[in-house]
């Protein structure tokens, strides 16, 4: 190995390490960019439709994103303040919160004792419960500044998602043209088709997730409202937002909603819990697997494996982007590996036999007839498998 080869290999290793380091440092920026592209892919059909109505592209993009932002702001202003007010009152008066939790505990213990026939049934000592509540309140007060800081960072990333999405839609044609020109003239059209397919899959995924969250929110809101649960819209909103996070999101949202309802009334908490469990069964067994498998065109089992893997590797963010990533990989494998391999195996049928062109060899698969014609010439001897292989 000469010095030039050693230098080239060393340069490749250093460049790869530098690229990996840059990617690792800016991982959150790449995640924000991916989320922006997913959202932009989801709303692009609406932008295209507005363009057909002779609305300029820039105005159509601003109209769509402005509508999304306005809807989110109105929704948050309607459902979030009751929760913040309730929690702020409890944090200011921790004795009131402790009394409410102890009252709920006693109510559960009485119902459990009646159900089990054990009069000594107890969840925990009341003093221990009060001490745990005091510790929780202190931890929340300590973590409040960091939580507010994280909220500001999240709002900044959300604004960045909107900005990146707008730029992606405005420069969409130019970006596709630039990427396709990186390849040979023969492959450019194929690259464009591949990009369009990936974008359609990402957009369908986002629309599917949003539809599932909307259905879950409505399905939780209507029964709880009809049964007289206070702040039913808030609880439904929390559960719907949690549904956007695959696998564990709905469970986390349900726990938070039930806990908040429990602070108001044990009866309301039971109503919220029962409705949530019924809707959750529908969502986990019917809605999510079907929507995910149809939008990304991958098996529901593979969807679940991807979600668990993404959550184990990168937490909630990894779970959110795991399905788009596995869907993109699936499309790339199908278009770049599986389909070319199928096209390379050409075949034709002659005299009841399938001729396979395997490149260096020709394979003849005989297809025997159930009622051979009389006087037909006998077929040449074949192997027990019915396949004759001859070198060209």
Structure report:
The chain is mainly α and 392 residues long. The protein folds into two domains: 28-98 and 152-344, no CATH class; 347-369 and 381-391, no CATH class. The protein contains eleven helices and four strands; from the N terminus they run H-H-H-H-H-H-H-H-H-H-H-E-E-E-E. The chain has helices at residues 3-25, 27-52, 57-92, 94-116, 126-170, 172-181, 185-226, 232-243, 249-264, 266-296, 300-344; strands spanning 346-350, 353-357, 361-366, 387-391. It has a four-stranded antiparallel sheet. A hairpin with a 2-residue loop joins strand 1 (346-350) and strand 2 (353-357). Helix 3 (57-92) packs across helix 4, helix 3 packs antiparallel against helix 5 and helix 7 runs antiparallel to helix 8. The radius of gyration is 30 Å and the shape is elongated.
**Most strands sheet:** 4 strands, antiparallel
Morphology call: elongated
Proportion of helical residues: over 70%
**Structural class determined from secondary elements:** mainly alpha
- What's the end-to-end separation, in Å? 39 Å
Gyration radius from CA atoms, angstroms: 30 Å
Helical segment count: 11
Number of strands: 4
Short structural summary:
The chain has helices at residues 3-25, 27-52, 57-92, 94-116, 126-170, 172-181, 185-226, 232-243, 249-264, 266-296, 300-344; strands spanning 346-350, 353-357, 361-366, 387-391. The chain is mainly alpha-helical and 392 residues long. The protein folds into two domains: 28-98 and 152-344, no CATH class; 347-369 and 381-391, no CATH class.
């Amino acid at each position: 190995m000469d010095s030039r080869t050693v230098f080239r290999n060393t340069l490749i290793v250093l460049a790869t390490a530098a690229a990996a380091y840059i990617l690792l440092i800016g991982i959150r920026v790449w995640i924000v960019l991916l989320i922006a592209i997913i959202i932009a892919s989801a709303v692009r059909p609406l932008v295209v439709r507005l363009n057909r109505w002779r609305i300029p592209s820039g105005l159509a993009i601003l109209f769509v994103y402005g509508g999304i932002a306005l809807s989110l702001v109105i929704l948050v202003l309607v459902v979030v303040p009751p929760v913040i007010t309730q929690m702020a009152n409890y944090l200011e008066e921790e004795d009131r919160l402790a009394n409410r939790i102890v009252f709920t505990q006693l109510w559960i213990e009485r119902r459990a004792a009646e159900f089990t026939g054990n009069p000594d049934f107890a969840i925990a000592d009341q003093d221990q419960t009060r001490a745990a509540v005091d510790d929780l309140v202190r931890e929340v007060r300590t973590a409040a500044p960091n939580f507010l800081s994280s909220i500001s960072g999240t709002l900044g990333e959300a604004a960045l998602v909107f900005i990146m999405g707008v730029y992606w839609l405005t420069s969409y044609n130019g970006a596709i043209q630039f990427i396709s020109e990186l390849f040979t003239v023969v492959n450019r059209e194929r690259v464009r088709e591949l990009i369009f397919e990936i974008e359609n899959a990402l957009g369908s995924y986002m629309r599917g997730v949003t539809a599932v969250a909307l259905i879950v929110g409505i399905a939780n809101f209507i029964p709880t409202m009809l049964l007289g649960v206070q702040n039913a819209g808030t609880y439904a909103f929390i559960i719907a937002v949690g549904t956007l996070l695959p696998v564990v999101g709905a469970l986390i949202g349900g726990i938070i909603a039930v806990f908040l309802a429990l602070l108001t009334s044990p009866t309301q908490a039971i109503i919220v819990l029962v409705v949530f469990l019924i809707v959750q069964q529908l969502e986990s067994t019917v809605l999510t697997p079907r929507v995910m498998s149809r939008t990304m065109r991958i098996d529901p089992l593979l969807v679940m494996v991807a979600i668990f893997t993404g959550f184990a590797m990168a937490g909630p963010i990894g779970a959110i982007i795991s399905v788009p990533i596995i869907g993109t990989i699936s499309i790339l494998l199908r278009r770049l590996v599986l389909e070319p391999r199928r096209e390379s195996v050409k075949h034709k049928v002659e005299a009841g036999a399938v001729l396979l062109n395997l490149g260096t060899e020709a394979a003849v698969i005989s297809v025997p007839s159930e009622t051979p014609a009389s006087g037909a010439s006998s077929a040449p001897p074949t192997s027990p498998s019915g396949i004759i292989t001859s070198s060209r």
